Amino acid sequence: MLYQKLKQYFEQSGFFKEIDQRLSNQSTGDLLFNMNNSAKAAVVTHIFQQTGKNILFVSADDKMAEDYLDDFQLLVGQESACILPDFEVLPYEERSPHYTIRAQRIETLARAVSGQPQIYSLPIRSLLRKIVPQVHLLSQPRTACQGRGTQPGSPDIQIGRPRLQQRVPGFARG
Length: 174
Description:
The chain is mainly α. The protein has helices spanning 2-12, 14-24, 37-51, 62-76, 99-114, 124-128, 134-139, 155-158; strands at 55-59, 81-83, 119-123. It has a 3-stranded parallel β-sheet.
């Protein structure tokens, strides 16, 4: 956790003192601009450490979200920063996202319901995707066991399945 080593320098900085003042006044709508990526990550990490609240850091694409995630994990550790990557699959494509993307999404969503404050780095496309509400997930628990399969059409398979089920004439698999 590099943040603890940098904290003494942040406390001496006039810029970070102003951020602390705005946090104590519960100021909203502040706009920070003309900062490089690492400076943005340092400011977000400082706010995260001062408030102890969840932070959603939205970036333009997956590459930028991963770059910011690297900075966040360096500053606060892997247990306090995660990414919610986009599926990178168009809704009409008949294929699943890569297993690493699915694994990252499951891990991040599990952290979101854990109650522990996190810094979530996510691309705007991921933010716009519909996520099943926590109440629904908790009301219908599912158990996954290794070696136990499910039949197509079972409730285990239906959750999270895209709504577009019909083939469109004139379109072929790519």
